Amino acid sequence: SAVISQKPSRDICQRGTSLTIQCQVDSQVTMMFWYRQQPGQSLTLIATANQGSEATYESGFVIDKFPISRPNLTFSTLTVSNMSPEDSSIYLCSVRQVYNSPLHFGNGTRLTVT
Amino acid sequence: ILNVEQSPQSLHVQEGDSTNFTCSFPSSNFYALHWYRWETAKSPEALFVMTLNGDEKKKGRISATLNTKEGYSYLYIKGSQPEDSATYLCASISDSWGKLQFGAGTQVVVTP
User: Fold this and answer.
1) pLDDT at B96 over 90
2) Which of A37-41, A61-65, A99-103, B48-52 has the lowest mean pLDDT?
3) Which residues of chain B lie closer than 8 angstroms to A45, CB-CB?
4) CB contact under 8 A, B105 and A42
5) Is the Cβ pair B44, A105 closer than 8 Å?
6) Which candidate in A10, A16, B21, B82 could, as Cys together with A110 as Cys, close a disulfide (CB 3.0–4.6 Å)?
7) A42: which residues sit within 8 A by CB, 6+ positions away?
């Protein structure tokens, strides 16, 4: 299975700043996703990162707030922009090789916004 | 049911005891049901992908069953060990895009 390196593993940020999270996979993968888990909530899909084109965002998530890049099949970044305390969450990168195969996850980024 | 729901939210188990918990999901337009284990400070790890009604899967002391007609899955842990302590997530797929809808998880704490 794919090995996924995600960084930073945690960060404490001030309100109004931005943080970019990186996700590096050790092999080329077709599907790459970004999830968020707010305290006490379910894992929620933010967007699908598309190689060479704009990400596909889920309802409630917009590109201005969560810009995503995916320059190739092994790397993606998620930026959390203009942060507020409500953005305090665990952010997870995940990949899937084929439809209906299980997801593989990075270790996550634990973000606290003060 | 419109969302994926897991119960209980948390449970404490004595080492050696067996336990089980539930995942309820929309039964219409069912494609698949996934189970994941998420240990603290680690990444979620896939346990099972289940697609057929009546399916039963087993991995060591952990097993799962699936009822797609009524929209539920049970996860069983036999002879719980402290290393089984984790949050167990289920996720259903209800569309052809393969999008997973996750439940909030069941946190299991196994005490020696």
Assistant:
1) no
2) A99-103
3) 99-100
4) yes
5) yes
6) A10
7) B4, B101, B102, B103, B104, B105
A43–B89 C-beta distance less than 8 A: yes
A42:B103 CB<8 A: yes
In whole angstroms, give the CA distance from residue A46 to residue A83.
15
Tens of pLDDT, residues A79-101:
999 999 999 999 999 999 887 78
Distance from CA of A43 to the nearest CA of B (A): 6
Note the pLDDT tens digit of each residue in B32-67.
999 999 998 899 999 999 999 999 999 999 999 999
Please tell me which of the candidates B4, B32, B44 has its beta carbon nearest to residue A100: B32
For residue A51, give every residue at least 6 positions away whose Cβ sits within 8 Å of its Cβ, in sequence order, or none. Answer: A32, A70, A71, A72, A73
**List of chain B residues whose C-beta atoms are within 8 Å of the C-beta of residue A32:** none
CA distance B24 to B33: 10
Q: Closest Cα of chain A to B108: distance in Å?
A: 15
Checking B47-51 for CB contacts under 8 A at 24+ apart, the result is B47/B75, B47/B88, B49/A100, B49/A101, B49/A102, B51/A100
Q: Residue B1: pLDDT above 70?
A: no
Count of other CB atoms within 10 angstroms of residue A9: 13
